[in-house]
Design a protein that fits this description.
binds guanosine-5'-triphosphate; alpha/beta; binds magnesium ion; 364 residues; Rossmann fold; 14 helices; 39% helix
């Protein structure tokens, strides 16, 4: 958000008196069908519940409301009808989205006329190859990058399907190339479908496995410094979530010979032909968990950027102009205070959450 504003302020012409409209941008990367749209659905519903009772509200704009409503109905449909604990979940089998998707929201304040837009774009994994320039350009603008990780593929069968599904090398190389030191970023590594590991008390194993499998990426992010201040420019966090809450990984589908039925990616990596999930309880319901957390982190990150811009009172040049631009927005202080309060509700080092670097970027 402030990166974008800094860009604009760099070219600020004195005649510009319109208050700038602030937008937080999130880029979500993840395999086809890993559950990106489902996560955004759960994230929106959880965040809407989280802001209830605060001064803030969150609304979905444009087509987003209808798309997410539709997706929510599909997800809830997985829980209709009678089922017993252990019954296999029948997948809706609906096709995913054809390419990138755009989701637009606005955070507003009940008492004042002020708002910040939130934009989330998701890109399927293969876009890192076929549409590299588009994704790279968006990442440059974005405040946060979410790397969605299929957890059963990471954890089961000794991680045999991790490379084919999650493409850790592709993601690492891409972010190495396109996350430069000149922009402050929040990078969230988000293991999805973690229900099984939470229930078995093994969520810390998931965190450790993410750290090991993404070690190259993490060490690169730790090394990125702000050109001006020499401080870490990236905050990187492992943030596991449960998109559905009461459906757990059961098995990779096996054939008559008892071996896992496999398919192969174009470049020859193995993938399971089918993944079975089961209900964790009789008449389980749609109850996502921790889905509000990625946005709490984003809000903590953005409010910290704001605070730092405010604190550098005697800074010259760009920061000074940035502060002037922010001052044009009425009630921004009150609003940012509310944002910061929500940001404090993030899980820190519990339930598999771990801040790997750049803690100062989210307020310590
Ligand atoms: N068991 C289980 N299934 C899930 C979960 N999240 C999503 N699904 C299912 O996985 C399928 C794909 O989910 P989407 O959210 O559409 O995945 P996507 O990453 O947006 O897919 P594309 O848009 O095709 O790239 C859907 O049929 C969901 O019902 C989850 O946490 N657990
Ligand atoms: Mg999708």
């Amino acid at each position: 958000m402030l990166n974008e504003l800094k860009e604009r302020v760099k070219n600020l012409v004195k005649t510009n008196t319109e208050p700038p409209r602030l937008t937080m941008r999130v880029c979500m990367l993840g395999a086809r069908g890993v559950g990106k749209t489902s996560v955004i659905t759960s994230l929106y519903n959880s965040q809407k519940a989280a802001v209830a009772g605060t001064q803030l509200f969150l609304v979905a704009d444009g087509d987003t409301q209808a798309i997410l409503e539709n997706k929510k109905n599909l997800l809830m449909g997985m829980f209709t009808g009678l089922h017993d604990e252990g019954d296999l979940v029948t997948e809706s089998g609906l096709p995913g989205d054809s390419g990138e998707s755009l989701f637009q929201f606005t955070y507003g304040m009940n008492t004042e006329r002020i708002n910040i837009d939130l934009e989330i774009r998701d890109y399927p994994g293969e876009y890192l190859r076929s549409e590299a320039d588009t994704v790279a350009a968006y990442i440059r603008e974005a405040d946060a990058v979410i790397v969605a990780i299929d957890t059963p593929c990471l954890m089961e069968a000794d991680g045999r399907y991790h490379a084919g599904k999650n493409r850790p090398e592709l993601v690492t190389d891409f972010l190495r190339e396109h996350l430069a030191s000149d922009g402050e970023k929040l990078v969230l590594l988000v293991p999805l479908k973690c229900e099984k590991y939470y229930r078995e008390g093994r969520i810390d194993e998931v965190t450790k496995r993410v750290e090991a499998e993404y070690a190259g990426l993490i060490s690169h992010l730790k090394g990125l410094r702000d050109d001006e201040t020499g401080k870490r420019s990236v905050c990187c966090v492992i943030a596991p979530i449960q998109t559905l809450g009461s459906v757990v990984f059961e098995s990779f589908q096996t054939g008559p010979d008892g071996a896992v039925e496999e398919i192969s990616t174009k470049d020859g990596l193995p993938l399971p032909a089918k993944i079975n999930y089961r209900y964790a309880a009789a008449n389980a319901a749609y109850e996502p968990k921790y889905c509000e957390q990625p946005l709490f982190y984003l809000l903590a990150f953005v409010s910290m950027q704001y605070r730092q811009a405010q604190e550098q009172k005697n800074a010259g040049g760009i920061l000074n102009k940035l502060r002037e631009a922010l001052r044009l927005i009425p009630h921004i202080d009150d609003f940012m205070l509310e944002i910061a309060l929500l940001g404090h509700r993030r899980l820190d080092s519990a339930q598999g959450y771990k801040v790997l670097c750049g803690r100062g970027r989210i307020g310590g």
